[in-house]
Amino acid sequence: MIELLFLLLPVAAGYGWIMGKNSAKNQAHQFNRQITSEYSKGLKFLLDREEDQGLEHLINLLEVAADSVEHYSTLATMFRRRGELDRAIKIHELLLKHPSLNEQQAAASRLELAEDYVMAGLLDSAEEHLVWLVKMDHSEALDPIITLYSQTREWQKGINMFEAHSELFSKEQHFKAIANFYCELALSDNNPSLMRKAISLNHKAIRPLYELGLSAYTKEDYVKAIYYWRELICQFTFFAPLFVDKLAHCYKHLNLIHQFHQLISELLDKGGVLIKIQHCQALLEQGNTEQAFEFLTDSLKRQPTIRGFSFLLQLMGAQDKNTKEVLDQIDKLVTSYIATKPDFQCQHCGFTSYTIYWNCPSCKHWETTVPSKGLDGF
């Protein structure tokens, strides 16, 4: 009998283990059924157009089943799009506190929460989370925090962030932003050396060279103005309309106009209509009127532009006194038409303006607003 009991002990133990396992499975199934039932209730509210009650029900369920991160992130995004930022913030804050999140999920939730705070105008709270992400080497936080510092004009904070975490910066737009931060701080503190720091960045930016040239030009230091603007016009010829006339004045003042003409000749292939007009003016000054006509008409055949046509009218009027009055009237009409067209356009979002914006008011990108191109452009 005792031997039989010893034989039955393993059987009893195995039976107990199986029953225990089944019991745990049953509890898990029961919990899942309960969660599914609660989800169903929330969805039913939504389907019955009782949106507020349904969404509140799903938010409360978050504290029970926060492991469904993707679903709740989608829900929070929907809240944000509807302008219900308090609910979006609540979901992301609860998600961030949940212990089951992995590092990637936690970072994504923190980034989303920062975006909620920005839209709600809670910029200090947004900055706190974005700075934390940057310190933890999450480069995806750079775009929003650069935009934030641009909005609040906290140039020094942006520069400090760059100098402490420069290894995270890889996009050209990031370097352009920091270069402009240096420029803004240099202008506010009257410290040109900061602009020279901007020039030393890995990626070349337009504004530092332009501002340094303008500063020298204002002080009548034409040698320095030529130094900075010559480098700028060679690297970014499309930006010439902003300063090419001033650059010509610098060369003339130093009796180096022949060097300016040589520079313009070298830029003809990549320059716009203003570069071509400058070349025509150089030919006229040298007495090559016929050559100037031929060059301009040939250029307009290959690439018609309103500004080029206006200059041609002026050229024809100067040569033919009998038709000058008529041509002047036509040119006035053309000039009036040009005045109605914006001079600058953002290459990123298409925003147009009559003045240069280093930071596009529409898409908030730096140095994407450039002189207009095409038929009405430069």
Automatic annotation (TrEMBL):
Domain LapB rubredoxin metal binding intervals: 344-370
GO molecular function: metal ion binding; transferase activity
E.C. number: 2.-.-.-
InterPro entries reported in the protein's UniProt record: Rubredoxin_2, TPR-like_helical_dom_sf
Enzyme class, UniProt record, top EC level: transferase
Gene3D superfamilies: Tetratricopeptide repeat domain
Keywords from the UniProt entry: Metal-binding, Transferase
Record keyword Transferase present: yes
A Pfam family that the UniProt record links to this protein: Zn_ribbon_LapB
Record's keyword annotation contains Transferase: yes
Protein name per the record: N-acetylglucosaminyl-group transferase
Organism: Pseudoalteromonas translucida (strain TAC 125)
Top-level taxonomy: Bacteria, Pseudomonadati, Pseudomonadota, Gammaproteobacteria, Alteromonadales
